[in-house]
Write a structure and sequence with these properties.
By secondary structure, the protein is an all-alpha fold. The protein is built from 6 helices and no strands.
Length: 160
């Protein structure tokens, strides 16, 4: 007999992995939902240590999604003010445009603020490229985390 709760949890976690690469799917939240669907409704419990570790990994995925671009902007030479404003804009646009809002909002904010602060177009564009690279690197990190969550979940469910 098929355990529908297990299937639902795995489907959510696979969707999370896809969401790491697709701009409109919140990967960390899907992983978190998968873990908690199984924890609350599954036939076997996950145990407090596994539940805590999987929850922390999913929350880390959400955080990485939010801060990857702003951190890259800082590493690219943007000011703390620019980084903070870009992070806030990305967070707000997450709710307006989904994860695509983070990418567009953070990169456009960095470029606009750099130009407003007197940077030449080349410097502003370079800092925007650093930011875009950070957003893309955070997608790779999200993919690795969501994949690890899925594998760890399956190990806990089937082997422990």
């Amino acid at each position: 007999m098929v355990d529908l709760v297990l299937v639902a949890a795995v489907v959510l976690m696979v969707a999370a992995m896809a969401g790491s690469l697709l701009p409109a799917v919140p990967s960390g939240l899907f992983s978190l939902a998968g873990v908690w669907v199984y924890a609350l409704f599954g036939s076997d419990g996950l145990g407090p240590v596994a539940l805590g570790a999987l929850t922390l990994a999913a929350v880390a995925t959400v955080v990485i999604d939010q801060v990857g671009g702003p951190i890259a902007a800082k590493l690219g030479g943007s000011s703390n003010r620019t980084v903070l404003i870009a992070a806030v804009v990305g967070f707000v646009l997450l709710f307006v445009l989904g994860p695509l809002g983070i990418i567009v909002g953070v990169v456009a904010t960095v470029i606009a603020l750099e130009l407003a602060d007197g940077a030449d177009i080349e410097t502003a564009a370079r800092r925007g490229v650093y930011t875009a690279a950070g957003v893309l690197a955070s997608s790779v990190a999200q993919l690795l985390l969501t994949g690890s969550i899925l594998v760890a979940f399956l190990l806990v469910v089937f082997l422990l």
